[in-house]
């Protein structure tokens, strides 16, 4: 009986020790699992892509606000152009006119959100409520002023406003453009202009037109009045290219300005044919504050037919050599997916299909299966290429002309 009792006590002790040991092992396994999850989570957090801090102001490269517009069927063109001119330091506003469908606008927004850098930096917006853009009508000026107002409101860092159409394309990288403009006064405006009206005085200035896009939902052609009006003498009429690079200070003057000149001229140009070829030109050259800050150039490469038609010649591979040697920043106009665009992508922009143009901000490997701009480094660093020298040479000549005062607002 004594032996049996002792045996039972030893058995109970073994069970108790086994229970403690099992509990300790389970606790250790749980602890190790928690540690491993924590380490894995830390590793994921440490390798996650965070956007680099964008720094603005004179010590840093300039930033550009792009207004890219198009119409029905231009969604893919706008996406391609956006990727060609994309840089995290810039701001972009994309606009499909009222002739495009709501589905096209949704698809455009989805395509933009599909770009990793755009999601991270949040510097691209798609205009939700479209503007009417009547051919040859004043609604084009209204759309551009709205775009300027939006860009001024949502981003305080950009220095110059650039308008592009879906049929335009860059001839250099954004690192090239920022490098050249780093040596330019940030209150200068680049706008092709002249007061020598010639045949335009009778055919463009004096006719009175009404843009139905300002008050009708569907009509798309301007109305012509039967009478004409005299050329204005309260201000000097200037005309030129509708493609501009305007300073932030000048657009603040046009949109938020204390002077009534921009609003007075806007009322007049509401009834002018192709008012986008005269409004900003006349405002800037009739303003004492800005007329001496105007460089007479639009920085575009364009080839006109002879005699010139309403629209320029469509550029193709036969224009490539002269185009890239022109020293222009942009060229127009191109057919959709023309072969010459692929030449620009591969030879100048070094841009892969459906990828942003790489720059110093791109920190990933560059291969046919890896996008170098899927990872990024310091976006405030730029690395200009050979095309920057061509634009820089053009810029020096333009600034020499500007300093002479012989070609600005004359």
TrEMBL record:
It comes from the Eukaryota. Keywords: Glycoprotein, Glycosyltransferase, Membrane, Transferase, Transmembrane, Transmembrane helix. Pfam families: Branch. Its main location: membrane. GO terms for molecular function: glucuronosyltransferase activity. One of its GO terms (cellular component) is membrane. It is found in: Membrane. InterPro entries: GLCAT14A/B/C (IPR044610), Glyco_trans_14 (IPR003406). The chain crosses the membrane at residues 16-45. It is a single-pass type II membrane protein. The keyword Transmembrane applies. Signal peptide: none annotated. This is Uncharacterized protein. It comes from Stephania cephalantha.
């Amino acid at each position: 009986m004594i032996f049996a009792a002792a045996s039972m006590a030893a058995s109970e002790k073994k069970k108790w020790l086994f229970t403690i040991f099992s509990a300790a092992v389970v606790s250790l396994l749980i602890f190790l699992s928690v540690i491993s999850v924590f380490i894995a989570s830390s590793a994921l957090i440490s390798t996650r892509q965070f956007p680099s801090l964008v720094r603005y102001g004179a010590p840093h490269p300039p930033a550009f606000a792009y207004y890219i517009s198009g119409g029905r069927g231009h969604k893919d063109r706008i996406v391609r152009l956006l990727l060609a001119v994309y840089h995290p330091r810039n701001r972009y506003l994309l606009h499909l006119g009222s002739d495009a469908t709501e589905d096209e606008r949704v698809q455009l927004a989805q395509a933009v959100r599909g770009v990793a850098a755009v999601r991270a930096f949040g510097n691209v917006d798609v205009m939700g409520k479209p503007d009417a853009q009547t051919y040859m009508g004043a609604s084009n000026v209204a759309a551009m002023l709205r775009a300027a107002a939006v860009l001024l409101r949502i981003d305080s860092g950009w220095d110059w406003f650039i308008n592009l159409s879906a049929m335009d394309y860059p001839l250099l990288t954004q690192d090239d453009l920022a490098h050249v403009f780093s040596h330019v006064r940030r209150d200068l405006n680049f706008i092709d202009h002249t007061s020598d009206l010639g045949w335009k005085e009778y055919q463009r200035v004096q006719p009175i037109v009404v843009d139905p896009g300002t008050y009708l939902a569907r009509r798309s052609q301007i109305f012509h009045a039967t009478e004409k009006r005299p050329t204005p003498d309260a201000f000097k009429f200037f005309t030129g290219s509708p493609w501009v690079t305007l300073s932030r200070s000048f657009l603040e003057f046009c949109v938020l300005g204390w002077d009534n000149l921009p609003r007075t001229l806007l009322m007049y140009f509401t009834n002018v044919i192709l008012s986008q070829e005269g409004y900003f030109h006349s405002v800037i050259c009739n303003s004492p504050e800005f007329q001496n800050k105007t460089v007479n150039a639009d920085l575009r490469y364009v080839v006109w037919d002879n005699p010139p038609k309403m629209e320029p010649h469509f550029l193709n591979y036969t224009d490539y050599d002269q185009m890239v040697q022109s020293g222009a920043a942009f060229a127009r106009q191109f057919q959709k997916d023309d072969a010459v665009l692929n030449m620009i992508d591969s030879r100048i922009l070094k841009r892969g299909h459906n990828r942003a143009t790489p720059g110093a901000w791109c920190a990933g490997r560059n291969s046919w299966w890896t996008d170098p701009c899927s990872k990024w480094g310091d976006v405030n660093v730029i690395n200009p290429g050979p095309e920057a020298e061509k634009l820089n040479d053009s810029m020096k000549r333009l600034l020499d002309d500007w300093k002479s005062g012989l070609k600005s607002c004359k």
